[in-house]
């Protein structure tokens, strides 16, 4: 007889991995759906979180980026009691399978807690392991990094101006394919004291494609900026769509776009 996990909303049995630091929320339904596609998760609002002898319904409320290139993600999920926890996208995907957890029972039909706890420990190690510091080859790179750290980015949406520098491709580690992106230059945040940013990038979304942008176009728009490096394209991409420079910032969901 097949053994299935009971549907239990039991917070006392759940091992939480609370998020550390800032959580990146989804700026729109479009971004939410795009991220689910990247993480190879079904397009829905609630998911099953399965652990030991119980499972609970959760929602994905945001994510956190890690690694030297900020191109790996930890999903932040919210339980029905409001508590938050982190989980790797691939592990949450695995939990959605109907046969998930069968290996967690021994031949006698009892929970194989050793296997489950080992898997949870592996997941916890992945989420909490610190990223090794990057050793720079020159003092110049170190100075650039220190300068970038000093910039205090606004947390809310703000007004920008920028120039379209390049239409490029960026490798997506989850889909194992390339995404279309736009590299912007002379990016300035317009506030009481204008803040020059330099280079930034954003996804070449349907909204931006409607603008029929060209290299050299001067733009003004609203958006939210985060510190996230542009992942480089693979070697088989033509040179026209490669970005050789380091682009340290990403602008999410630009809106109210105007050509100047």
TrEMBL record:
Residues 117-148, 232-260 are annotated as: Disordered. It comes from the Bacteria. Residues 117-127, 232-247 have a biased composition (Basic and acidic residues). This is Uncharacterized protein.
């Amino acid at each position: 007889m097949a053994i299935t996990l009971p549907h239990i909303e039991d917070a006392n049995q759940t091992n939480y991995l609370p998020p550390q630091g800032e959580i990146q929320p989804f700026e729109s339904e479009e971004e939410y759906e795009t991220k689910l596609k990247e993480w190879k998760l079904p397009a829905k609002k609630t998911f099953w979180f399965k652990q030991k002898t119980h499972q609970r319904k959760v929602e994905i409320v945001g994510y956190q980026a890690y690694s030297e290139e900020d191109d790996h993600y930890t999903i932040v999920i919210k339980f029905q009691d409001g508590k938050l926890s982190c989980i790797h996208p691939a592990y949450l995907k695995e939990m959605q399978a109907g046969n998930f957890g069968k290996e967690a029972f021994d031949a006698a039909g009892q929970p194989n807690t050793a296997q489950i706890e080992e898997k949870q420990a592996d997941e916890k190690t992945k989420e909490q392991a610190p990223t090794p510091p990057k050793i720079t080859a020159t003092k110049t790179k170190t100075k650039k990094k220190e300068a970038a750290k000093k910039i205090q980015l606004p947390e809310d949406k703000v007004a920008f101006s920028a120039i379209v520098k390049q239409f490029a491709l960026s490798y997506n580690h989850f889909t194992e394919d390339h995404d279309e992106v736009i590299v912007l230059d002379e990016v300035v945040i317009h506030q009481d004291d204008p803040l020059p940013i330099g280079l930034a990038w954003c996804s070449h979304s349907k909204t931006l494609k409607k603008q029929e942008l060209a290299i050299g176009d001067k733009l003004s728009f609203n958006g939210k900026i985060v510190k996230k490096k542009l992942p480089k394209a693979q070697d088989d991409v033509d040179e026209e769509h490669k970005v050789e420079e380091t682009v340290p910032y990403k602008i999410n969901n630009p809106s109210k776009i105007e050509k100047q």
